[in-house]
Model the fold of this input.
Amino acid sequence: MQFDIARYLLSNSHGRWDGAEKATRHIKLCNIYIATHYGGLIDINGDAYGRRERISFDLFEAIHRDTQELTNNLDTAIGFPLESRPDLDFFMPLFFKAFLKIADKTHRKYKEANNEKLD
Done:
């Protein structure tokens, strides 16, 4: 996950902005989160791999949507510089903690709404 966070932040960096990589890394980060909880992945078309019966594309979409609160506002959410080179060693843990906090909240809401056992 560390590599994907680094690449995600680089794709948002001044002079290196890359929308395609930003989107690809965001999808992968959401998938990594889901895989840690459900042992499988979901691709962009909604196809599940792994323990299919427990993976919901609705959960993937919710996590992807809600973490955009962070990914679309890196400057205000974690102080990520938009006009200068970022110190990735400084911003990677901040991004990880913020991403995880949002994803956990969304996951909890999803489990409650679907009567799944909470961890």
Observations:
- Residues 27 and 64 are 7 Å apart (CA to CA).
- The longest helix spans residues 88-113.
- Residues 2-113 form one domain.
- The chain has one domain: 2-113.
